[in-house]
Amino acid sequence: MAGGNGSGVVDEGRRRALKIMALAGMLASVDLAVFDKEEFKKMLRKVGLDEILGGDDVELAGAGESDMEKRAKKKTEEMKKICFEAAQKICDEKGLNHADCLAAIHKCRKIHVKATPPKKGAKYAMALDLDKCIGCRRCEYACVMENNTMRNAGMEWIHVIEYDREGLQDLEGGTADYRVAPKKGKVYVPIACMHCENPPCVYVCPVRATWKEPDGIVVIDYDKCIGCKYCVVACPYGARRFNLMKPSINPLELNPNMHILGNLIRPVHVTEKCTWCIQRTRDGGVPACVEACPVGARTFGDLNEPDSPIRKLLERYDFFVLKPEAGTKPKFFYYFGGAKPERAEGGE
Amino acid sequence: MGALKEYVDTIIYIFAEGVRGGRAYRLLLAGLTIMAVYGVYLWLFVQHAPIFLGLDKGGLIMTGVNENVPWGLYISFFTFWVGVAASGIIFSFAAYVFNDKEFKKVVPLAEAQAVIALIITVWGIVANLGRPIRATFEMPKFENLRSMLDWDFTVIFTYMILNAIAFIYTVNQMRLGRPVSRKFIIPYMIISSPFAIGIHTVTAFIFHALTARPALNTALLAPRFIATAFASGPALLLVLIYIAEKTIPEFKVDFSVYKKTLNVILVSLTTGLFFTLAEVHEVFWYTTEPLKKAQLIATFYGGPIPMLTALTWTWIAFGVAAVLLGILPPMRRARESIVVIALITFIGVFAEKTLATILPGFVINPVGLPSHYKIAPIEYFVSIGIHSTVFILYAILARSYLSTLLKYGYKG
Q: Which of A72, B311, B325, B326 measures 20 to 30 Å from B40, CA to CA?
């Protein structure tokens, strides 16, 4: 009796265990069937030929051409068409032999849309010295010129905001429309896309039109954006802009060096934002704002490269990020004050 | 096949019956149609001209929406009407769970109200959408299930279809002289109740999980939405029932419906006001969180958007007034006074759930700059157009249901 009872208990226990296992298995398979398939597909798709062959320096022709590159070729034609239409207007106005007409046509011919893939192992970051920044907004200007930002709605990717020294910590009482700078007791904080490690804007996009590239740049696909503006609402730094009207372009001021995820002539009603000049940085350059800054407040570079200026800087200074409580882990660092005392083993 | 034909006939019957009516009714429909056509024209060919006509001018820049206030009047109508839609479930519950015969008579009206409210919400989103054509292709792919918009899209469409089915089914049964079967109603209730709560919850979830907007970043947002929704939806229905009673002499609803609905309104309204109080306390008592405080100070004391402060105080004043009037015994004895309370409630919640809900998140932008928002004329006209298209539908649905009810009676 006791033995039977005991075995009964064991049986029941085993049965229950088996039931749970079966259930768990079912759940797991359901899980796999419902959710993981897409993830798997993506993983499979990611390992392309270029990775097996060892990377960036191997140029693959024909079959190896990525989707992006194909699209970039099409985009080149499209951009040229838009540009020539605008150039036509200039030529009609000023005559075919006018210098502006010739310059415009020359610019349009030079348009090339790239689809440069991210450099392997790179992780970009930018740092800005608040002591140096004088609030001159030359970075804004350089950014607009470089990135073919629309001229007709006053849009800028970078906002230089003037805070009181006390207001800086809480980001309170700032203004972006100051006339005279620098003023005593004020601090000037250029704010653009922070290229966060945990970007809320990417999480909220209903169609995956925006994502984070392996090199840390958050990009937008202008051909996929449906213009819901949810990402604009979700950005804790107010860094995203929306094309509220059809962007105007001036062929004379056009930057013909374009990247498909960056400074194309934008279509109407899509979101856009700073891409750290993806058309320059992917080719080893620095963003236009870094180049334009007259006081050298900005530093850009690859965090994973031990000799890069940004790495050296971050080792030498105490830096902070805006809104650390948001948990977004920005890759845009601010610092001020003197450098930390050099460590014994540091340097030479 | 026979059943299908029956339902097709019912749908035709609904529309044929709905447009029939006297001179005044036809004039009303004509007026609504003119406003609807004008509003939709403005949306398609003026505001969205760059998309639909490929023009250089036009665009969302014509609206008050800007860099710091990406969502304006259209989205505010979305948040408001989704609440009205959610509340249809209260009547279904009263009717079928508590088996109240008088409530069963008005349930199809609540269902029709839910359908039209949801159409306004979808309209509101679409009018605010930059690229509606692209969205029709991209949204159904559900590429990012982490985005609340995908979930909202799903629940809204499901609930809209569920309500439409229930309405058509009820009219069909009545038209053919058959009782509304419990075999249909019970599964329908079980499926649709979570969706009713779901549409509003998910709408709140769109806003409340964003660190960027501290004024909206509160877990109380969804409960607050539901509470005020359960006040505004029944209030609107009560007003409409009263209008129906006045215009159609044969249509009579028992006074108990008014009284019970008033109780629902009062309880929900009190809860809503209590939630507002809780939020105010959270921010103004100790909190030192700068942005949240700045946004709510701008909401309650006035800031860069004065309209927001006015709307917020309208909500508090009308809400408190409705509750106080509602608990006075003399006010509860007559239909007219109850309808007045319902109207006050509706206006109060309308003020709160439209712009006063979403603008606090935008009034101070995430990096501390003041925002500006002014409703542009085109926004008013497009909104009126959107509402008109839907009120036409509601007039048709309600009229055909009421005439069916009078002709065939209700067999529950």
A: B311
